[in-house]
């Protein structure tokens, strides 16, 4: 199905202004105003591993030699 220019304009308008305003730009990170962030270097403080206690579980956050983070249970 191919839409002509006026049909395309109507389809865009039917989406609504709210959707157009809240849609993230391609390639840009989406951030939520109530979400906090922490740098991994602040968590690890020079170490390569960190144990995280969450409820009854213990998780291990590990920094690899290539600078990647791995979280395991």
Word description of this protein:
The protein is an alpha+beta fold. The protein is 30% helix and 23% strand. The chain contains three helices and three strands; from the N terminus they run H-H-H-E-E-E. A three-stranded antiparallel β-sheet has the order 1-2-3, with no helix packed on it. Strand 1 (49-54) and strand 2 (57-63) form a beta hairpin. The longest helix is centred in the N-terminal third of the chain and has 11 residues, at 5-15. It is extended. The chain starts with a helix and ends with a strand. Mean pLDDT is 78; it is low at 14-20. This is Hemin uptake protein HemP. It comes from Hypericibacter adhaerens. It holds the Pfam family hemP.
| Chain-averaged pLDDT | 78
What is the level-2 CATH architecture name?
Answer: Ribbon
Shape: extended
What number of structural domains do the residues give? 1
Helix share, percent:
25-40%
Largest beta sheet, briefly? 3 strands, antiparallel
Strand content: 15-25%
| Distance between the amino and carboxyl termini | 49 Å
Q: Unreliable stretches, pLDDT < 50, 5 or more residues?
A: 14-20
CATH superfamily: Complement Module, domain 1
What is Rg? Answer: 22 Å
CATH domain topology: Complement Module, domain 1
Number of helices: 3
| CATH top level label | Mainly Beta
SS-derived structural category = alpha+beta
Strand order of the largest sheet: 1-2-3
Order of helices and strands: HHHEEE
InterPro entries: Hemin_uptake_protein_HemP
Organism: Hypericibacter adhaerens
Protein name: Hemin uptake protein HemP
């Amino acid at each position: 199905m191919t839409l002509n220019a006026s049909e395309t304009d109507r389809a865009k308008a039917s989406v609504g202004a709210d959707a157009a305003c809240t849609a993230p730009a391609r390639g840009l990170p989406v951030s939520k105003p109530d979400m906090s962030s922490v740098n991994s270097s602040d968590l690890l403080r020079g170490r390569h591993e960190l144990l995280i206690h969450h409820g009854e579980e213990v998780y291990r956050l590990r920094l690899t030699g290539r600078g990647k983070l791995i979280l395991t249970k």
